[in-house]
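Narrative of activities, Objective 1.

The group set out to show that a structural description can be obtained from nothing but a protein's sequence at a throughput compatible with the screening campaign. Below is one input-output pair from the validation batch, recorded exactly as produced.
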Amino acid sequence: MNGPDERVNEPGARADEPGARVDGSGAQADGRWRRLDGRVIAAHCFWLVAPLVSLGLTALATGGRFDLRAWITLGSIALTFAVISANGLARWLRTRYRVTGEHFEVRSGLFVRRLRSVPLSRIRNVDLTANPVHRLLGLAVVRAGTADRDELRLEALARQDAARLRGELLRRADTRESAEPVLAMFDRRWLRYAPLTFWTIGGVFVVLGTAYRILNDIGIEPWRLGFLRDLAAGAVWVTIPLTLLAFLVVGSLGATALYAENWWNYRLEWADSGTLAVRRGLFTTRSVSMDRERLRGVLLREPLLLRAGGGAKVTAVAGGLGDDEENRRRSSLLPPAPRAEALRVVERLTGKAADRPMLRHPRVALRRRVLRGLTLVVLPVAVALAVLGLPLVAGIFLVVATPIVWWLARDAYRNLGHAVDGDYLVARSGTFSRDTLALRRTGIVAWTFSSSPFGRRAGVVTLTAAVAAGEQGYRIPDLAAGEAPALAEGAAPGILTEFLV
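Output recorded for this entry:
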């Protein structure tokens, strides 16, 4: 049955757009309502393979004799299959979409009908994703991001229909051609940077947590396993090194596998429509397109471990990539790769060298970092160890930690810098992750000056550039208080003019 219509239109959209139209670029928009691919029902039900296989193995192990629990499980699977099939069928029957001369419209809903109409001029990126099931069935999921961080999602279309739809949605993008359309391609030698990422350690804990839950669910207590008891009973000087070695080996293998899954067949290029396209993925393929006009800048990131190995990665400062989580996932332009490759990508995108000389920050910034490390890390830990009755350990910690904090503080201070270079504001900061920002000056919409009581006493402020893209705000810490207003006015003239004397 048809329920009431819920009409959701973006500003400037009209739901009664006529059929066929021709836009300014000459592209034909037929305006016909189109439906999802029928294979979407099979994609929704594919997850039932795992419980069915488990049930089949149980049948083989018991000779086909099911107890009450097995019959309950079988009934649950059948009921779930029926619900998912009905939901997929309803979605396939009731979802329609079309592209007119000016708008992208999606109609959906079973009991409450919903019509969303978005002007093509507000679409900033189109993301095509295909997990292994979608690839097996020849499908792809289409996500269209808008200027107000909203998203229209179609699941799922035939792969060729998805690619055609992306072209229709992006046909109004800037059609200027780049002299060098392909900016970067995957190199297998980049896999050596995978162990230098967070997942070398984080991935081990994910695997251990998953294994613990599986063993616990089937009634096995992990600490009662024989090889774990033998390892715990061994000498400490043998157990600890073996455990650390196992962590590093498993973590490195896992990080390398994850890197390959995410970035295999990677390609960064200017698409025919003038948008910046990132294509990547081994089992799950991903394709993200960013509007050239919404690319506000780029961020060169060098986490401490990756920097020690001579690597870096690049992310985009762009609008229309969704909420914070979606933005972090979609904004990656270059995976961990050689620093020279990262610098080359930044220069090709901005025309500026990310390793250019910058203006130094006042010397007091070094003192602030040293004091911060000593008062927030070294002294509290040392006092806690002493209170626990470990004065010798506290003394050793002080002797070891103090020079480390000093080195990190000096590194953080050396990394501080800023410059106004043509159309871009360039800023660098950080030690655990040294970040170099090349931000288009026309993308800055506001400035924020902030300072703590200790910062005001030291005569420094933190300047934050507000941007309608990326992380929304980018900090330049510990600027001289007397120089910050001039830098802000020079980088984005007019914003502070009425406040300056």
